[in-house]
Write a structure and sequence with these properties.
Shape: globular
Oligomer: single chain
Largest sheet: 9 strands, mixed
CATH class of the largest domain: Alpha Beta
Structural class: alpha/beta
CATH architecture of the largest domain: Alpha-Beta Barrel
Strand content: 15-25%
Number of helices: 14
Bound molecules: zinc ion
């Protein structure tokens, strides 16, 4: 697709001093030129205007896409009773429901200006096809949980689905397979090590949940004598050359911070979900960043958030650290923007950062709105005032997925109607 962005404000780095105004030319999916003099003959679309601000779209570091079907179904309960509600419905999920939930999630992500997601679920082969159609980037974590529900269940079945996802993503420039043992407390050691071997031999990322709640940490200490991240290191989960995405890390010790830093693990931090389910703790983000871990913001599933809007998540993230640590300078707007729009991309797909010759991924925000004026500091307005609905257009891998709020790859009206008609059957 040939596109031109004209006279827009560009944020090439999460640093307010790097911002400049320019034109951008996109040819055959690639950023061919960034310069105020750049011109293009007959682009398919021109996005032009002084009020537009462009930056790399956020990538969701941890979510469960098909759980959109459960949005608002169970609120104001602690983790275990909430999980019982959720499992009752998830037990009915087959490939058909998973495809429908993923479709709604992709539509929501495009409308909220997200460029991709690290998903953690079952039937990833089915989800692969939905992401491909939507045109967003995906890291597809095939869930491994030997005690899973009937339609997702059994290690052998889950492994077959993983192999299928590898085959389906082979030719894709958007999708990366991944393997996702649920957690060290729910999956036997034997399977955790088998999945770590698979990640190592296929050279793909591995995802896991760890230290989500204080109870999980206490259970691990009682059973194994050490907290979750420490045990993962003891059994050989972390490997040189394998990229781990460790979700939550709400309750971790300084020793565990250092382990995660040592292996440069990516932390799938989901502050809204942690607050909603009342986990009490706040992930020690400043310490993790200082130790060398890669903090990347995620939403978790929509049953515990209840949106996939990472622009809203940013505001909550920066505020919860300030509030919990009694220090508003410890984790700033620039830090959280880096952890939302740069950190995951830098670690997993740096060839889509804003640079000539790279794949073109852009979120275009429209600042011509009362809540985004005046513009003393563009990054401050994005973090503290913007929402996903301020994204005017979304470009991923050089393709325009949304233009002027209209989704071009999925049929919005049709999906919303299907959700309205069918989702009741589940409940
Ligand atoms: Zn999760």
């Amino acid at each position: 697709m040939d596109l031109m962005l004209r006279d827009v404000l560009i944020i090439p780095k999460p640093d307010v001093s790097s911002i400049f105004r320019s034109n951008i030319i996109i040819e055959d999916n690639i950023i061919s030129e960034i310069s105020p003099q750049a011109r293009m003959r007959d682009p398919e679309y021109i996005i032009s205007g002084k009020s537009f601000v462009v930056l790399p779209p956020p990538i969701n570091s941890h979510t469960h896409l098909p759980m959109t079907l459960l949005r608002g179904y169970s609120d104001n309960k602690p983790l275990l009773p909430w999980l019982e509600d959720v499992w009752k419905i998830e037990g009915k999920f087959n490939a058909k429901w998973i495809a429908l939930g993923a479709k709604l999630a992709c539509l929501e992500m495009i409308k909220a200006g997200s460029g991709g997601a690290a998903d953690f679920y079952f039937h990833e082969g089915t989800i692969t096809k939905v992401l491909e159609e939507a045109g967003i980037r995906g890291w597809l974590g095939s869930g491994i949980l030997p005690s899973a529900f009937v339609d997702q269940g059994g290690y052998e079945f889950q492994l077959e689905e993983f192999e299928r996802t590898i085959d389906l993503t082979k030719k894709s420039s958007l999708l990366t397979p991944s393997i996702a043992p649920h957690s060290q407390i729910t999956v036997p050691e034997e399977y955790i090590l088998k999945t770590a071997d698979l990640a190592e031999s296929h050279q793909i990322p591995i995802m896991i949940h760890a230290s989500e709640t204080r109870k999980e940490v206490m259970d691990s200490e009682e059973k194994y004598g050490v907290p979750p991240v420490e045990r993962l290191e003891q059994i050989g989960f972390f490997r040189e050359g394998t990229k781990e995405i460790v979700a939550h890390c709400t309750w971790i010790t300084q020793r565990e911070v250092e382990i995660l830093g040592k292996y440069h693990a990516t932390i799938g931090w989901c502050p809204v979900s942690a607050q909603k389910l009342a986990y009490g703790g706040v992930t020690p983000v400043p310490e993790l960043r200082a130790a060398g871990a890669m903090v990347a913001l995620g939403t978790d599933g929509t049953a515990s958030n209840n949106t996939l809007d990472l622009w809203r998540e940013m505001r909550e993230a920066v505020n919860v650290v300030s509030a919990a640590r009694w220090d508003p300078a410890l984790y700033t707007a620039e830090h959280v923007l880096e952890d939302t729009n740069w950190s995951f991309r830098r670690n997993f797909h740096p060839q889509s950062l804003i640079e000539e010759g790279n794949q073109a991924d852009f979120a275009v925000l429209d600042f011509n709105k009362p809540h985004l004026q005046p513009t003393h500091n563009v990054i401050s307005n994005i973090v503290y005032a913007a929402n996903g609905s301020d994204v005017h257009s979304l470009i991923v891998n050089g393709n325009l997925l949304m233009h002027d709020r209209e989704v071009l790859t999925l049929n919005e009206a049709e999906i919303l109607l299907e959700i309205e008609e069918k989702s009741k059957e589940l409940f």
